[in-house]
Amino acid sequence: MLNVTDLAVTKWESDASLPNTITLIKIADYFNVSIDYLLCRKYISYINSGNNVVKIHEKYPYNLSPEDVERLINHLRDIGFDIDKLIKNIKESSK
């Protein structure tokens, strides 16, 4: 999809370099986040998880990436959590 080398990704992960503009756009589109979020310039991001939207905020203590959140949601579903009910309860309790 991105047509990049493993070495390029390793450099991005170690902050040795950044992806070019076109690649940043593709990554942002794929994960449904802004380029500012990818560059840590915007500290609030939304990701889709099925019919739910997960909000990631700068004060969130675990600093999870969108893919980490997606894996967490999938893991919780796998072990029997009703994610839709959990999110509904959280939304209702914050009103």
Question: For the residues shown, what is the average pLDDT?
Answer: 73
Main β-sheet, spatial strand arrangement: 1-2
Count of discrete structural domains: 2
Summarize the helix and strand pattern as letters. Answer: HHHEEHH
Protein name: Helix-turn-helix transcriptional regulator
InterPro entries: Cro/C1-type_HTH, Lambda_DNA-bd_dom_sf
GO molecular function, one term: DNA binding
Pfam families: HTH_3
Give keywords.
mainly alpha, elongated, 95 residues, 49% helix
How would you portray this structure in words?
It is built from five helices and two strands; from the N terminus they run H-H-H-E-E-H-H. It is mainly alpha-helical. It has two domains: about 1-40, no CATH class; about 45-95, no CATH class. A two-stranded antiparallel sheet has the order 1-2. The chain is elongated, with a radius of gyration of 15 Å. InterPro entries: Cro/C1-type_HTH, Lambda_DNA-bd_dom_sf. This is Helix-turn-helix transcriptional regulator. One of its GO terms (molecular function) is DNA binding. It comes from Clostridium intestinale.
